[in-house]
Amino acid sequence: MTISIVDIARIAGVSPSTVSRALQDHPRISPERRAEIQRLAESLGYRPNQMARGLVTGRSYMLGAVVTDITDPFVAEVLKGAEAAAREAGYGLLFAMSNRDPAQELAAAETLLDHDVDGLMVISSRAPHRYADLPRRGDRETNAQTPVVLVNNGVAGPRLFSVRMDNVGGAREAVAYLRRLGHRRIAFVAGPEGGRSNRERLDGYRQGLVANGLGSATELIVQGAGLPEDGPRALATLLALADPPTAVLCYNDLAAIGLLAAAARTGRRVPGELSVVGFDNIPLSAYATPPLTTIEQPTAALGRTAVESCLRALAGGAVADVVLQGRLIVRESAGPCAR
Amino acid sequence: MTISIVDIARIAGVSPSTVSRALQDHPRISPERRAEIQRLAESLGYRPNQMARGLVTGRSYMLGAVVTDITDPFVAEVLKGAEAAAREAGYGLLFAMSNRDPAQELAAAETLLDHDVDGLMVISSRAPHRYADLPRRGDRETNAQTPVVLVNNGVAGPRLFSVRMDNVGGAREAVAYLRRLGHRRIAFVAGPEGGRSNRERLDGYRQGLVANGLGSATELIVQGAGLPEDGPRALATLLALADPPTAVLCYNDLAAIGLLAAAARTGRRVPGELSVVGFDNIPLSAYATPPLTTIEQPTAALGRTAVESCLRALAGGAVADVVLQGRLIVRESAGPCAR
DNA sequence: TTGAAAGCGCTACCAT
DNA sequence: ATGGTAGCGCTTTCAA
After folding, report:
1. Any strand D atom closer than 7 Å to B24 CB
2. The whole model's pTM is what?
3. Do A86 and A20 sit in the same domain of this protein?
């Protein structure tokens, strides 16, 4: 039989209230009693029932995370940062996957909310505008709704916060770097259409071209899905151009690695004949052939910051939207322009 | 204010019990009332409070997963399978990371247990023997302890189950394949020392050598950690041998990809001069240069099966330990022996 | 078929 | 400093 607070009270010859106080280091209890009861609880292997506690305090001490696909290295890294931060604060992390589908995403969010998470994070939402009027439980005292933090795809709203990276700046920096290497024909392999970060990176790419005195050309932008599978098609399309690019910026590392593999297969030397720059700096990008030059996502920081925003909102504090900077990681897939 | 079962009862002019029955499709209620109440609840945006429900039923409808590092592609895939299975069964998934540290692992398990998970899965445990006497809450009715399923590192015990892949068979198959390609000097880059799957794969490697009439040699086994970082050192060590190997089986794909990168950097052609076989079939292995031949882990199936075992144990059914087979995925990193 | 009432394990308020 | 008591939102007997 599981041992409860009443059992301890009976054995110690005190009331349940006293035991409760002893266990949560309440000030109004004598130090000896507290020590004695804590020792007893310890020796009995007592573990508090969080559901009972939660029922009265109105807190579950769980945060929820809705993710597109935990198998995506970017998502995994963000989640890793979030988990660490949550655990440090004594919170558990409940997660659910959307498989990149808006309907599944909303359903996942509701499931987590049903499990009474105290706060919700959504990583790379595919339906950011739907959270403003998602039914959320109100706090019993303050009547404030469960805070929602949109990671990497934010829109403002009541009790709706956002944490994201500066995609525009990152892409612009990548283009500037390629220009410094002498490249003038720079292509872009786009990611999932309609996605916000794709739009921003595309913007940054365009701004980068303009800022560096390079005209943009529609033919240099090819559509992809942010997957390694994009590589072969993108490469074929770009190389078939009358005036093919000497450098390619990819929406993300996954696509860039697919591109690298396709180039190797078709005997195209990188960076000799073609420079490739990725985006995200996933762990394996350092071990690609050649090692991938890329824009680093502040992944762990995104997750950690999201948790902190949740917690701050929960504590009733003011929460500002956060924009974190990425950084260019120079490796070997981009080099001087040969032409 | 959040709406509760009593609110609905008041509005509908019935008792809370009736509402409760209507909401859970209880048989002893008139169909019209049920429909009416369900409609009302729906329109009011009612969401049941799982904590209150859990407090009385003794179930949280959450499963826990302790993982080493969610950033490890293998772990992520297993978790993905588990999440899908859990969600289909109406369960949420709470997870915590151990960072490969036994102490953190046990702490994580206790945290999840404290959050009242109905069942616990531990993926790639670093302390499998500690679960037999981990204090677990007993079921209120049957008094059965919370079931624990060890994924990929199982030991039997009371309410302790295991789901794993056949590592020995997989490694043996890889060696047999390399032998068929003509290789006779086959090396092994080992993974984390003391790990069970490392031991099993090493066993399979040795058995494979024997079964194919090849003597084993200590010098052909180099220690690693199952990370891309293993690559450079392993390659250097093996190529420095008087009689270097013509093929290498790696503990996992991460190490194999590191090896591939190291080979490319030092101008070693793969598979021309050296054949490389990985283990796990992580998503990116197909996009390595060259695409990696590997033994597939039935990852999603492992996660799914783990959840099913948990649920079966929860339902009071008999649970057998499960061993799932891997499969050889032939790609391009292994070829005929040139010598 | 429905309602009343007890109680899940805990916290927090009001007494003392 | 401690105990009594109410109640969190729900399910589940037991009666009607």
Report:
1. yes
2. 0.84
3. no
